[in-house]
């Protein structure tokens, strides 16, 4: 009888071992299948985001970087001049950008490279360009006030308009359209510098309550810190406000499908952008400012990652 019992025990043990092995194999297969699905969603895990050197686009880029890394991508940011940015997207050395100002500011770059790019969704609505002054310059409200040299504003500024880097779309528009259209080219000169240098000169003038005219746009952190006004443009030479779009190289959607989806649904307001820009200007790194924004806006983060969770 004991022999029978022992035999039954052995058979039972063997059966349980087989069942356990079967279960382990099934779990392993299920895990492998899930891993394969995750890999298919992610596709190519190395993603390069392109941005120009202007803090409005840098802030957006680093927030997107954080979102992509959240779901498993390894992200590099390629920060360069706007012309090189578009060329890099077109030749595939960068994957995507969330800083295409269209249809006006980046028109020349878009026209040159659009056949090699995919235009994605709108990131920010109605961003504006304008010659801008501190609000305490009460008598200067329009570009025409510069033309008419109201209150000897030209002599006070030595006929200089403080600009940003020469390759910027706004600089091109100011030099090629705004200045000649208003006849400013008779006396005024557009001085190139950089975004940070322009902001530094603006701050220095405001600290002394001196006059200054700069090329500026929204969103920009200076509107958080200073009381500024954009000059009226009665000839509408800067055009109607642009929208900011995401763009990608051809084939990015197929190579990294989830990254494409997250970028394609990324959108935020000018105020949200300015909050990140202001954090950067206040001394935070780009990474820290983006992380702080997402920590302070969990609903926004969840919304932007919706595509990752719905797959």
TrEMBL record:
Any Pfam family hit: OpuAC
UniProt entry keywords in alphabetical sequence: Cell membrane, Membrane, Signal, Transport
Compartments, record wording: Cell membrane
Chief localization: membrane
InterPro entries: ABC_Gly_betaine_transp_sub-bd (IPR007210)
Record bears the keyword Secreted: no
Signal peptide residues on this chain, from the entry's feature table: 1-23
Residue ranges of every copy of the ABC-type glycine betaine transport system substrate-binding domain listed in the record: 45-296
Name this protein carries in UniProt: Glycine betaine ABC transporter substrate-binding protein
Organism of origin: Lentibacillus juripiscarius
């Amino acid at each position: 009888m004991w022999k029978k019992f022992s035999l039954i025990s052995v058979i039972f043990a063997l059966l349980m071992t087989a069942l356990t092995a079967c279960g382990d194999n099934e779990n392993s297969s299920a895990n492998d299948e899930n891993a394969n699905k995750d890999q298919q969603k992610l596709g190519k895990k190395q993603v390069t985001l392109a941005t120009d050197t202007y803090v409005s686009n840098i802030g957006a880029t680093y927030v997107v970087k954080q979102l992509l890394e959240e779901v498993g991508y390894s992200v590099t940011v390629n920060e360069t001049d706007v012309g090189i940015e578009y060329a890099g997207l077109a030749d595939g050395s960068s994957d995507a950008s969330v800083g295409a100002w269209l249809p006006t500011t980046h028109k020349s770059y878009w026209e040159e490279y659009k056949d090699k790019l995919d235009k994605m969704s709108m990131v920010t609505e109605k961003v504006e360009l304008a010659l801008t002054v501190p609000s305490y310059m009460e008598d200067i409200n329009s570009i025409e006030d510069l033309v008419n040299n109201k209150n000897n504003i030209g002599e006070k500024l030595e006929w200089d308009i403080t600009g940003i880097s020469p390759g910027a779309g706004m600089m091109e528009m100011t030099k090629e359209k705004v200045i000649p259209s208003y006849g400013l080219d008779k006396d005024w000169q557009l001085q190139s510098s950089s975004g940070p240098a322009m902001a530094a000169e603006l701050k220095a003038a405001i600290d002394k309550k001196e006059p200054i005219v700069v090329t500026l746009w929204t969103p920009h952190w200076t509107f958080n810190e200073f009381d500024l006004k954009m000059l009226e443009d009665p000839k509408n030479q800067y055009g109607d406000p642009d929208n900011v779009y995401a763009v990608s190289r051809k084939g990015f959607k197929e190579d990294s499908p989830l990254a494409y989806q997250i970028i394609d649904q990324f959108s935020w307001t000018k105020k949200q952008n300015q909050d990140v820009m202001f954090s950067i200007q206040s001394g935070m790194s780009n990474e820290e400012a983006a992380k702080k924004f997402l920590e302070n806006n969990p609903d926004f983060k969840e919304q932007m990652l919706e595509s990752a969770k719905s797959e």
